[in-house]
Each structure stands twice: as structure tokens, then as C-alpha cells.
Design a protein that fits this description.
Layout (H helix, E strand, L loop, with lengths): L1 H8 L13 H7 L12 H7 L1 H15 L3 E7 L2 E4 L4 H7 L7 H15 L1 E8 L5 E7 L4 E6 L3 E9 L2 E6 L3 E5 L12 H4 L1 H17 L10 E4 L5 H15 L7 E4 L17 H16 L12 H30 L8 E5 L7 H11 L5 H8 L34 H18 L15 H12 L4 H14 L2
Parallel strand pairs: 9-10
Antiparallel strand pairs: 1-2, 1-11, 3-4, 3-8, 5-6, 6-7
Helix pairs in contact: 3-4, 4-6, 4-10, 8-10, 14-16
């Protein structure tokens, strides 16, 4: 064997192979089976575990709210396509499903089963006209030595429906032990989910019907007949008995109570359930601060940011790249799909970066780099120098010798807004400009970046009025 391998590797390969040599073996070793190897108890866990339900609902409902955009690539530029046909299709994928429900079911299937499937129904031109979500527990992959995946089989009530590979979009999570199916978080959280459910069942049974601990013992020291014994029990229960906590009756002798069970306190029951909750939420990527009753407002904000950046956004990126790879080729080349970037930005860091770049860049460079705005004819001059930038501004209204009353009124409102915001640093909402010309609004905004106190804010607007009076 060693000599054979040495002989084989002695031939130095100068070109890359056109096809991976292991694909045929992978397909051949993965025999077709009608029952997909997914977590069979996933649906039950979602229905019976409150923390699994909470975790998945947080993810799917937040993800379903984020819109998807289609862009055309032209070199290094991405040009947005307004109201692209794919965006229209995703907003109403079929007569029975809304766009929210489509993403909700897709992301939920990935979290529960590690797999999600879309069936594409096309029009006469072969372009997708409808999208239907398939249940992952009914879908089986058909391996093929030449194509890797020949197609899919959908099983329902003993019927086997073959689906071509081009008709199905398969989203899946990474599975280290399977080449075709994804691994669900439920499989990793199985131990914690079962433990939490058993603890919940034990708690319910403790206080359930006929499961309560006897509240006391009635000891009848003197011997009585069977008829009197039954009469005493009946009369006692009629007057003092209640529900599941029945009173124990013993006939004759001295009775000694010995407790052999463990109470909720002995078991540290609440802490145990919290530990199971934290483990389940961590597996799904839900920060505990989002659901903890002891979380402060600051902790909750940090938890929400972590959830968006480290959990939700990567899941949306997985969906978008698969849609770009398998759906957008129906509409042409050089198209990509992306969900809106919902990751929170550090406002202070962004402002510091803009302040540092302001003396070095032109107005157009600032507009393109930090505000994603197109260039303007007056934007080739430097944005500013050291310190407060010089406001060498063009006239407010081209062709007029003085600014209009609407512009002056809006500048006054803007000045009051900027002064009030100095007293409320947590306020990040920008001033909505409607009457001030774009070039002037940009220069005023840039000047306000350097305004750290009330006097500097007033000087920005005073300079504007002086230069345009």
C-alpha cells in the first residue's frame, strides 16, 4: 500500500481537477432511505418545552421582519433593483402563505430539524411563480454518483412524490457526520430539553391529582370494627378532606412518620430549572438577558445587540446566499440577494471616524464612504480643515439673493433640535430636512459633528446665515 501511494503521488499534478474525486464515493456510500435522519422528537420539544418555544419564536419572528433586497453587480459596485420580481415573489410566495409566514416556516424548520426545503413552481418561461415550504420530516434526498443529488422524494400518507433537484431549494445547517442533511440545535439540546421536561412533569405530578403528600396522619389507638372504621373515614373526609391531599388513616398502634423523599428546596428546584433554561437558550443563541427577570435595561440592550449580531444576522446571511445561488439565476446573471443589515452601529465610534476623516476627504468622498450618497457637482472641494470646518457654502436657493422664509424657519427648528439634543445624548434620531437644500444640509450636518457645546452649535448656524444673507 505504501509503495502504491508513493508511486501515485510521485506524479506531480500541474492542473486542478475539473471535479472533486470524492463526490462519487460520497453519493455511493449514502444509500437512499425514505426516512430522513432528523431529530424525530423536535416537534414534540417545540410543543412541550417552553424554552425551546421561546427561543425559536424569538429567532423566526425577528428574522421574518427583515426585508430582502436584490442587487446587480457591476464590477465592485452593487446597484439596487427596486421591486425586483424575486422581492415580489417573496412578499406573496403562494395563495396560502404570506411573506412573513414563508420566512417564519423556513427559519423555524432550520432551527427544529436543521433542514428547510422550498418547492418552486414555475410559469411558462420556467421562472419561479410560487414557493411552497416542504416539511423536512417528509423529504428524503436521492444521492447520485454523477450529480451528487439526483432529486428528492416527498412522502405523505404512503404516497411518494419525486421532485427534481432544480425544483427544490435545500437550506441546511452544517452536520459534521452527514454529507446531505443538516444538524438541528434540538439534537444538541436534547439532554437539557429532556431534563427540563422531566423536572416540569415531576413538579406537575407533585401538585397534581392524587399525587400530593398526606397533610397528616389520623391514628385511631383503640380497636374499632370495620363498620365504625369506614364510618369515621367517611365522616372525616366529608368535613376535612380536600382534593388530592387526602388524610391518611391507620388503625391501632403508635405511628412514626419518616420522610424519605426530597422537597423542592432540597433539590434546589428553581435553580435547576434556570440552569436548564440557560443551557437551552445558549444552544439556540439567545442571550439570557433577553428573558431574564433580573436583567437591567443596560443588560437587556447588550443582550439584544448580541442576539442581532451573533445569532440573527448570520442566519439571515445563510438564507440570502442560498437564495442568490439557487433562485436568482432564474432571473439573470450577476445578481445577489441580501437582507437589510440590521446590526447595530456604534454611534460614537462612527462619529469619531467621520471627524478624523473630515479634514482629509472631499465632500463627495465623505458622501460616498459614510452616507452612501451619490456625488454632487459642488462636492470636489475639501470638506474642511483642522478644527471647525469653514462653511464656504453655496447660496441656499440658486437664482435667489436671499434664502426663503421656509429655509430660514427650518434652520431655526434645526438649531433648536441640535441644542436640545446636547441635553439628551441618548437621542440618536436625526433632524428631518425638507426645505434646506441638500448641499447646505450636508455641510451643516458635517459642521454639527464638531459641535460639542451650545456655543459651537450656535456658531454653525450663525455662520450659515451670515454667508447666505
Amino acid at each position: 500500500m505504501f509503495n502504491w501511494l508513493s508511486h501515485f503521488f510521485s506524479k506531480r499534478r500541474r492542473l486542478l481537477r475539473p471535479r472533486a474525486p470524492h463526490l462519487e464515493s460520497v453519493a455511493a456510500s449514502s444509500r437512499f432511505q425514505l426516512s430522513p435522519p432528523i431529530e424525530v422528537n423536535a416537534d414534540r420539544a417545540y410543543q412541550q418545552s417552553p424554552w425551546v418555544y421561546v427561543a425559536i419564536n424569538r429567532i423566526v419572528e425577528a428574522g421574518a421582519l427583515v426585508p430582502l433586497r436584490v442587487f446587480r453587480l457591476e464590477g465592485e459596485k452593487r446597484i439596487g433593483i427596486a421591486n425586483h420580481p424575486l422581492e415580489q415573489l417573496l412578499s406573496r410566495p403562494n395563495p396560502l402563505t404570506s411573506g412573513f409566514e414563508l420566512l417564519e416556516q423556513t427559519i423555524g424548520s432550520l432551527e427544529l430539524h436543521g433542514n428547510a426545503y422550498w418547492f418552486l413552481a414555475g410559469d411558462a418561461r420556467g421562472v419561479p411563480r410560487e414557493i411552497w415550504v416542504l416539511r423536512p420530516d417528509r423529504v428524503s434526498i436521492v444521492p447520485d454518483a454523477a450529480r451528487v443529488v439526483a432529486g428528492y422524494v416527498y412522502e405523505i400518507d404512503g404516497q411518494f412524490i419525486p421532485l427534481d433537484a432544480i425544483e427544490v431549494v435545500h437550506f441546511r445547517r452544517w452536520h459534521p457526520g452527514n454529507d446531505f442533511y443538516g444538524l438541528s440545535p434540538i439534537a444538541a439540546a436534547r439532554g437539557a430539553v429532556l431534563s427540563d421536561r422531566h423536572m416540569s412533569d415531576w413538579n406537575r405530578n407533585t401538585f397534581g391529582q392524587d399525587q400530593g403528600v398526606p397533610a397528616g396522619v389520623v391514628n385511631i389507638r383503640d380497636f374499632v370494627s370495620d363498620a365504625d372504621y369506614e364510618r369515621i373515614k367517611r365522616e372525616w373526609r366529608q368535613q376535612y378532606g380536600a382534593g388530592a391531599r387526602k388524610t391518611a388513616f391507620l388503625r391501632g398502634g403508635t405511628v412514626e412518620w419518616q420522610h424519605i423523599g426530597l422537597s423542592h428546596t432540597d433539590l434546589d428546584f428553581l435553580q435547576g430549572r434556570k440552569a436548564q433554561r440557560d443551557e437551552i437558550l445558549n444552544i439556540f443563541g439567545i442571550p439570557v438577558g433577553l428573558v431574564s427577570e433580573n436583567a437591567t435595561e443596560a443588560n437587556a440592550k447588550v443582550a439584544e445587540r448580541q442576539f442581532i449580531e451573533r445569532t440573527l444576522y448570520p442566519k439571515l446571511a445563510r438564507l440570502a446566499q442560498k437564495i442568490s445561488q439557487e433562485l436568482l439565476p432564474f432571473y439573470g446573471a450577476n445578481l445577489i440577494a441580501e437582507f437589510d443589515d440590521i446590526r447595530p452601529t456604534d454611534t460614537e465610534a462612527r462619529l469619531a471616524e467621520i471627524r478624523a476623516a473630515y479634514p482629509l476627504l472631499s465632500i463627495n468622498e465623505l458622501r460616498a464612504t459614510y452616507f452612501q450618497l451619490p456625488p454632487v457637482p459642488w462636492g470636489e472641494r475639501p470638506a474642511g480643515g483642522e478644527g471647525n470646518p469653514p462653511l464656504n457654502l453655496p447660496p441656499m436657493n440658486q437664482g435667489e439673493t436671499s434664502p426663503s422664509k421656509a429655509v430660514l424657519d427650518e434652520l431655526a427648528q434645526w438649531e433648536r433640535f441640535a441644542l436640545n439634543r446636547l441635553d439628551k445624548p441618548e437621542q440618536t434620531r436625526p433632524f428631518e430636512v425638507t426645505s434646506v437644500p441638500d448641499e447646505l444640509a450636508f455641510e451643516v450636518s458635517a459642521g454639527l459633528l464638531f459641535a460639542q457645546d451650545r456655543e459651537s452649535v450656535k456658531s454653525v448656524f450663525a455662520g450659515v446665515r451670515a454667508l447666505n444673507s
